[in-house]
Amino acid sequence: MRRKATRLLLILLSITLASCGSNKAKDGPPRSGSSRMSDLPGDAVPRPEPKSRYGNGPVYEVFGKNYTVMKSSVGYKERGVASWYGKKFHGRLTSNREPYDMHAMTAAHKTLPLPTYVRVRNLSNNRSIVVRVNDRGPFVHNRIIDLSYSAALKLDIVNSGTGLVEVEAISFDEPSGDRPVRQTTTPAPVARTPDPAPPKIDENRIYLQVGAFGSRENAENRLAELKGASILSAFIVEDTSVAPALYRVRVGPIRGVEQYDIVVEELEKLSISDPYLINE
Would 256 be classed as within a structural domain? Predict the structure, then answer.
């Protein structure tokens, strides 16, 4: 009888351990809550803030890689892939020691000063939001910003998990003169009104630009390089809106993040870095 009881105990213990091992904490949306746009928070309202005592480097290391925090957010503008994080991190401290709130309009970035306000635009549907960067990440290759759950919901990238976006800093820093300054707009604090429907975007007109050349011959050489690597959707656009004309080499259309990741990986093999996403 005792032997049977001991055996039963061991079986129950093994089932419990197996259950714990197979139910690792996974990230995701909250268990309940409305996903209606009217119930989501308004955008973060940009305002001058002192730099945080925490999370601003100037250099930090994650997974064996060093990251250098930018001295200023002036002029920052980048296009790439956004991801989002949710309940797994809800309530944990962010890099500047604020509790992470997945329902707030915040984000994580690898190198922007903390805090920084940025405008994020979904290139696929033209939806735009303003968030406050108060955390570090995402530490995943080929990702440029990690949005809170509510921010991702407003951009309509929760279900897909990722999206092609444009990120532009709304900076209160003084221009330093050592890099070009892009004009940014700072929304004034106003009463919240319903967001207007964004202009429709043709998702079949998102491309990766991988070079702009002053001579047709150089553009043809780049095109041949791409075709030789089986990037068969590459082509040349002659831009006569500038003088002299430029020959822009593009790949696409890019239909979603999965295809974007594949193309970027192939470009990296050719030592072609910093391809630029365009939608027109």
Answer: yes
In the three-class reduction of DSSP (H, G, I as helix; E, B as strand; rest coil), residue 107 is classed as: strand
DSSP state of 113: P
Residue 200: CA count within 13 A, CB half-sphere: 2
Classified as helix, coil or strand, 210 is strand
CB–CB of 71/175 below 8 Å?
no
Residue among 190, 270, 257, 179 at smallest CA distance from 228? 270
pTM comes to 0.79
208 falls within a domain: yes
Same domain membership, residue 45 and residue 151: yes
DSSP letter assigned to residue 269: H
Q: What is the number of residues in the chain?
A: 280
- Tally Cβ neighbours within 10 Å of residue 42: 15
pLDDT in tens, 130-185: 999 999 999 999 999 999 999 999 999 999 999 999 999 999 987 765 444 443 34
